[in-house]
Amino acid sequence: MLTPEQYAEEIYAEDEQLNKVKQSIEDCGMRDVSIAPGYGRLLTLLVKTSGAKAVLEIGALGGYSGICMARGMNGDGKLLSLELKEDNADLARRNIAEAGYGEIVEYRIGPALDSLAQLEEQGERFDFFFIDADKENYPAYLEYAIKLAHPGAIIAGDNTLLRGRTLNPDKNGPAVLAMRKFNEMIARDERLLSAFIPAYDGLALAIVK
Ligand SMILES: C[S@@+](CC[C@H](N)C(=O)[O-])C[C@H]1O[C@@H](n2cnc3c(N)ncnc32)[C@H](O)[C@@H]1O
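That is the input. Now the predicted structure with S-adenosylmethionine docked in place:
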C-alpha cells in the first residue's frame, strides 16, 4: 500500500522544471535534500495566498524551494536567500534563472546568522520566511524571523521530524535538541499563531501576530 505521501505525489503530474533541479544537484555530486514536492507546492500556495512580496529563505541548496516560492510571487517582489556555500548558491542561481525568476532572487553567501544580524542592522523586514538550513540554529533563526517580520508574516520551518529522530527519546544530539526547542517555540510562543504538519519530514507553520 502507498504511504499518504506517495499517494499525494502520484496524483500530481511530473514537474519537469523541478526534476531538472533535482538532477542538477545529483550531477554536482551533492545529496539532494530539497524540500519534499508536496511541501514545495504548499510554499507556492502560501506565498501566493498571503501576497508576500519580500521573502527570506535560509538555506538555498539547488534552488528547488526558491523556485516554489518565486512561483507564488508571480515574478513580482524579492526573494533573498541566505546560503553558506558559494557553490550551492551558484547552482541555485543558475536553476532559478533557468526557471525564469533570476530577476527577483538575490543570494547572500556566508553563515546565515551573520547575514541575519546584518539584515536586522539594516532594518529590513519580510513577509515570508522559509527556514531550511543547519538544524542546530533553528531556534536562533526563528528568533530572527520574528524580529524581521512584518505583522502577519508567515514562517515555515522544514524537517521538524528529522526522519523520526525528533520523536525518539534515545536521540539527543545537538540537532535533535535544537529541533525540539524550535518545535516547542513555534507551538507556544505567544507572538505566534501556528500549526505543525506531521507529514513528509514535518513542517512547522506560523503567523507572526
Ligand atoms: C536542506 S538544504 C536547503 C534545501 C532548499 N531549501 C530546498 O528545499 O531546495 C540546506 C542548505 O543550507 C545550507 N546551510 C547549512 N548551514 C548553513 C548556514 N549556517 N548558513 C546558511 N546556509 C547554511 C547548506 O549549504 C544547504 O545548501
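DSSP finds eight helices and seven strands in the chain.
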